[in-house]
Amino acid sequence: MGKRKYSTGAKWEDIVGYSRSVRIGNIIEVSGTTSVKDGMVYGIGDPFTQAKHILSIIEDAIQKLGGTMDDVIKTRIYVTDIDHWSEVGRAHGEVFGEIKPTTLLIEVKGLVDPDMLVEIEATAVVSE
Known about the structure:
The chain has helices at residues 11-16, 47-63, 85-96; strands at 3-6, 21-24, 27-33, 36-37, 40-41, 72-79, 102-107, 118-125. It is of the alpha+beta class. The chain has one domain: CATH 3.30.1330.40.
């Protein structure tokens, strides 16, 4: 059971030493993902837009390793302001409404960039 890795090429992946997603067997883990596009924070001031963008990055990271969003069994959502829960939850619901993975939504003190309002990670189990 070999380990397969996917990286987006973001500068932080090499600096910090991580992959966007890793697959071992039928399990895919996706790293904490923030809303970045072309090296800049995307959706500044808009937690819904950030969450939707993050989920598209996560979907790509899962697909690159042979999975789909239907395979996601758990998400972990970190917000810098718990009052954003409904906007972030709405974005999550638009993507996972029928899939309904388990989830966690928790407020954190901050993320790497103060313009980042949301970070999401995911676990998928691919049917073999």
